[in-house]
Write a structure and sequence with these properties.
Helix content is 35%, strand content 18%. It has 289 residues and is α/β, with parallel strands linked by helices. Strand 1, helix 1 and strand 2 form a beta-alpha-beta unit. Pfam families: Epimerase (PF01370).
Length: 289
Amino acid sequence: MRILLSGATGYVGGFILADAAAHDDEIIALSRFGRQVAGAATSLRFDLNGDMSEIPVGIDALVHCAFDHVPGRYRGGEGDDPEGFLARNVQGSLKLFEAARRVGAERIVFLSSRAVYDGHPAGTVLTEDLPLDPASLYGRAKFDVETALVALAETGLITSSLRATGIYGTSQKGGWHKWQDLFQAFEAGENIAPRIGTEVHGADLAAAVRLVLMSERSKVSGQRFNVSDLCLDRRDLLDLYATRKGIDRPLPDHSDAAMVSQMDCTRLSGLGWQPQGQDGLLRFLAELG
């Protein structure tokens, strides 16, 4: 399969590239820097607010992971430019969809977020059919793009949106991961605040992307899919980490699991998705050494 991948140099892009390499797919990488991306056949400079005329013909599918935001922030990622934030991420995405369609793409997979559910009370079971009115501009931008993709599905494209929760793991040995600062602070003996949330390994998200790309139209087109695996308490995570590292540090208090809004992934599981669960978390921690 010849896949156009936006956000190829980002965190999620690394997992998509690794999965593509394992399945002998050809990746056309789009990134802000335009430098050659390891694992990609071709790399092109790309801006959600820029010209998209250089995208080559003969694309089978687009996987859209790029998102323009203030560094280090998704919710609140608009900074002091909410109008520009929405224009780049919503209108820019629609421009990319049309450009991909012009060069032959028949499928589009969009990386959305659990942020579309912002505004529902804590403890809500999150299903894809819940009514939505996102409380953050980040969630609003993702939801608006999802809505546009549903409309595009009615014109013949095969479109899907993946509502991913927090993503952990590394796509390559020694790569960056989301808990680096947390583990360093814990080892240094700093006071760690309690927290609990939902997580999915990046490789499991990449597997979900592949599933929707390979599934028949009737099962995926115009659909949204929740992508989540573990409900993980920071205390439990640090306890596992401390045990593997052989260190003795105070652990944060447990958080209230009843306050977590768990994502129901029945729809994605129906396609055959099987995330790694606790075993994947333990393998990740073991890989850290």
